[in-house]
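does this look right to u?? iron/sulfur cluster version
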Amino acid sequence: MAKPESQYKSFLKENPDSNFTFDEWKSWLGNKIASVIVNLGEDQKICHNCKHLLSMIALGQGLRCGHPNKTPKNYMIPSKWSTCEMFVKKSKKSA
Ligand code: SF4
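got this back:
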């Protein structure tokens, strides 16, 4: 992962109209990361909280959906923040 100073330079390159100082950018980034973490809360209807999520990252297969009615079978989901109409909240035991 790039050092914060390098990330800040990249940010300024991608956002030339920004007036953020380095400290302001760090604060903005911290708030942004915190909001993402809050959105991963247990009540969110996202794949991360669904009992059908299959984490096959260790096998090099990424995140997959194991819902029996999904086609293709065990299809790769784009991220754990995705969702669908077949969401089923996982129980604490299966977490
Ligand atoms: S795609 Fe739907 S069923 Fe599959 S893990 Fe995500 S929310 Fe659950």
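The chain has two helices and two strands. idk if thats expected tbh
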